[in-house]
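Please decode residue identities from the backbone states below.
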């Protein structure tokens, strides 16, 4: 038989395909609520973060609907507008895995920034953080200033490869899967928490304490991961 190209599949895609198949075979009928995340993860033998990435992918594809405070429901695939094809979603990094990678890399970036930052770099970090504060007070999501904060730290590290790596993380951050996840869990309170965590990173860089900067950034991204991994609960969204 002719050989076929072996296509590596991201774990969340494998999980999504298994759930999609179960729905297609009628195991979960349209309108049915899926089991709780912990139960699904146990049945599939996967971690809850990986399962959540799969559920977000299926939500983007229009297979399921996440109803905050209620649960996750199967949609009638024969009704409603078509959404993204699975192949379009399959190339994206899982947002929770991305956050874990950022924790490792950006912790070191912050430590380097504490050693190499110029006055202009520190001013840029301060300005981005202040912009975040102002946007949250005004009821806006400070995503661009959040990116500016992390980009300024990467610039201050003095390493172009790390700067470009962090830039690549942020390109992925604006992909549909991450946008969908953020739509459920980013809120005024979560952004205020992030601002407080950012302040600790800034203070460590300002005082040239590399270890404190590393720990502060890692702690920030651990808490970010925890916020995105929380139960599907009602959150108060920032309104534009």
């Amino acid at each position: 038989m002719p050989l076929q190209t072996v296509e590596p599949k991201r774990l969340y895609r494998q999980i999504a395909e298994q759930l999609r198949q179960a729905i297609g075979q009628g195991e979960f009928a349209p309108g049915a609520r899926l089991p709780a995340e912990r139960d699904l993860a146990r049945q599939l033998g996967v971690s809850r973060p990986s399962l959540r990435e799969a559920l977000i992918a299926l939500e983007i594809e229009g297979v399921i609907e996440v109803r905050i405070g209620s649960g996750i429901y199967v949609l009638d695939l024969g009704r409603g507008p078509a959404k993204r094809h699975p192949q379009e979603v399959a190339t994206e990094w899982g947002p929770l895995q991305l956050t874990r990678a950022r924790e490792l890399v950006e912790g070191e970036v912050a430590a380097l920034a504490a050693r190499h930052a110029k006055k202009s770099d520190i001013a840029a970090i301060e300005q981005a953080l202040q912009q975040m504060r102002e946007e949250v007070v005004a009821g806006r999501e400070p995503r661009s200033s959040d990116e500016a904060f992390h980009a300024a730290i990467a610039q201050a590290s003095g390493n172009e490869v790390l700067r470009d790596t962090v830039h690549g993380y942020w390109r992925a951050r604006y992909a549909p899967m991450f946008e969908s996840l953020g739509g459920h869990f980013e809120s005024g309170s979560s952004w205020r928490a992030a601002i407080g965590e950012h302040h600790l990173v800034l203070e460590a860089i300002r005082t040239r304490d590399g270890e404190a900067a590393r720990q502060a950034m890692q702690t920030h991204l651990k808490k970010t991961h925890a916020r995105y991994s929380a139960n599907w609960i009602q959150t108060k969204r920032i309104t534009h």
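Observation: The two ends are 58 Å apart (CA to CA).
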